[in-house]
From TrEMBL:
PANTHER family: TRNA N6-ADENOSINE THREONYLCARBAMOYLTRANSFERASE, TRNA N6-ADENOSINE THREONYLCARBAMOYLTRANSFERASE, MITOCHONDRIAL. GO terms for cellular component: cytoplasm. CDD domains: ASKHA_NBD_TsaD_bac (cd24133). Required for the formation of a threonylcarbamoyl group on adenosine at position 37 (t(6)A37) in tRNAs that read codons beginning with adenine. Is involved in the transfer of the threonylcarbamoyl moiety of threonylcarbamoyl-AMP (TC-AMP) to the N6 group of A37, together with TsaE and TsaB. TsaD likely plays a direct catalytic role in this reaction. One of its GO terms (molecular function) is tRNA N(6)-L-threonylcarbamoyladenine synthase activity. Keywords: Acyltransferase, Cytoplasm, Iron, Metal-binding, Transferase, tRNA processing. Substrate binds at residues 179-183, 212, 225, 347. Fe cation binds at residues 123, 127, 375. It is found in: Cytoplasm. This is tRNA N6-adenosine threonylcarbamoyltransferase. It comes from Caldilineaceae bacterium SB0675_bin_29. Its cofactor is Fe(2+).
């Protein structure tokens, strides 16, 4: 079974809804890869005054925004009625319960009223599949060619990456996925579509959370990731030394075949059980201690140049750790490609360092375009399509019929099926993860 749109059959169009945190998002995605519309109503301005996401405010804002966002996404995709589509997908976790409920309840209502199958999507699987979305505007009719790996070659590096992305399973898997967002930092070995092995995760704060908290300490603004990146541009990352958590001193030559890579950090992952795990909480404390020490010495830690230098040192450490562990896992598991996703994958230094490093190795690297790095619904539509195509046979989906694929007619769902979906429902990604 494959999600291929063979024989010119009409595109399988999914309305996807995402409200797991502070973005109210809806998108229409065709055949899991073509974005027909993608609306995101960000709540950043609303939460800025709190310096972080205020959960109750987030869920109330979703209630206010969701109808317009969904209507706009349908209109952008020239969909007059939900019934014209093939399925509805919604993020059902992980995330803030009150926020998730808004999207899940709307999706249930739409699916029940229209009779369309409802596909629950794990938010992290959504981030992973942001790397499978085409963003070059190629029409759905080109899908056959690109699915066969014969899509238009040439163009930008990312165009050719996307063409390559469409290659056969043996070209693509195993793939190493680094998920780096505000809530998660995970290294996942993707053995095939919708088949994952969790290699490591953060033991405490996520990378994005660390960016946000350090930005708050330095009073650089919210959200912290872009603020730290902007400050670091005029900073000297060498002025202050910060610890690289769960790394050990090492020489470049220790990590073959990366010896030639100029960007490889001179630290290596620790040995043992935490080799692929992360920890960013102590790094945040190290920044706080550094600031206190500077102030004891009579310096102003938040003075523009000093704050920029601290931001640059912090960003360098995070990138070193993320890249060092990703490079180590890529070598260990002999992966065919590396994908980075989640909000922190928007970070310029991380993207640049990863590009340089994996280019040296000739290992394909994929990062979503910037607008697909942070939360959006297009990635949820993509994940839903692949899950519906590849995972239902192994893992029955109550809402889509036990063996439905995007090109089967779904069995008629019952009211009970819809009521069964809640935000604590067992999450597909977690279910399929083996340690
Ligand atoms: P989540 O899924 O956890 O709600 P997102 O995937 O939307 O979060 O990612 C949001 C996180 O990404 C925030 O912590 C934010 O600071 C971080 N982020 C966004 N842009 C950048 C950047 N350029 N550099 C580093 N971090 C970034
Ligand atoms: Mg996210």
């Amino acid at each position: 079974m494959s999600p291929k749109n063979a024989g010119g059959s009409p595109a399988y169009r999914i309305l996807a809804i995402e409200t797991s945190c502070d973005e109210t998002a809806a998108a229409v995605v065709a055949d899991g890869r073509h974005i027909l519309s993608n609306r995101v109503a960000s709540q950043i301005e609303l939460h800025r005054r709190f310096g972080g996401v205020y959960p109750e405010v987030a869920s109330r804002q979703h209630v206010l925004a969701i109808q317009t966002v969904v209507e706009d996404a349908l209109a952008d995709a020239s969909v007059a009625h939900v019934r014209e589509l093939d399925a509805i997908a919604v993020t059902n976790g992980p995330g803030l319960a009150g926020s998730l409920l808004v999207g899940v309840n709307l999706a249930k209502g739409l699916a029940f009223a229209s009779g369309l199958p409802l596909i629950p999507v794990n938010h992290l699987e959504g981030h992973i599949y942001s790397n499978w979305l085409c963003t070059d505007g190629s029409p759905v009719a080109d899908l056959q060619a690109s699915e066969d790996g014969n899509g238009p070659a040439g163009g930008s590096a990312s165009d050719s990456a996307r063409t390559q992305r469409s290659g056969s399973a043996s070209d693509q898997f195993p793939a190493l996925i680094l998920i780096v967002s505000g809530g998660h930092t995970e290294l996942v070995l993707m053995e095939g579509h919708c088949r994952y092995r969790l290699l490591g995760a953060t033991l405490d704060d996520a990378a994005g959370e660390a960016f946000d908290k350090v930005a708050r300490l330095l009073e650089l603004g919210y959200p912290g990731g872009p603020a730290i990146q902007a400050a670091a541009e005029s900073g000297d990352g060498g002025r202050f030394q910060l610890p690289r958590p769960l790394m050990r001193p090492g020489r470049r030559t220790e990590l073959q075949p990366h010896a030639q890579a100029p960007t490889l950090p001179t630290v290596l992952p620790v040995r043992g059980e935490h080799r692929f795990n992360f920890s960013f909480s102590g790094l945040k404390t190290a920044v706080l201690n550094l600031m206190r020490q500077l102030e004891r010495e009579g310096a102003e830690a938040r003075q523009t140049q000093t704050a920029s230098d601290i931001a640059a040192a912090f960003q360098m450490v995070v990138v070193d750790v993320l890249l060092g562990k990703t490079a180590d896992a890529a070598a260990e598991f002999g992966v065919k490609q590396v994908c980075i996703c989640g909000g922190v994958s928007a970070n310029g230094l991380l993207r640049q360092a990863a590009e340089q490093h994996f280019a040296k190795l000739g290992l394909p690297l994929h990062c979503p375009p910037l607008f697909l790095c942070t939360d959006n619904a297009a990635m949820i539509g993509a994940a839903a399509y692949y899950r519906q195509s590849y995972a239902v046979a192994r893992q029955p989906s109550p809402m889509g019929g036990p063996h439905s694929t995007p090109h089967d007619k779904p069995s008629e769902p019952s009211a009970r099926d819809f009521l069964a979906l809640d935000v604590y429902a067992s999450l597909p990604l977690v279910d399929s993860i083996q340690r």
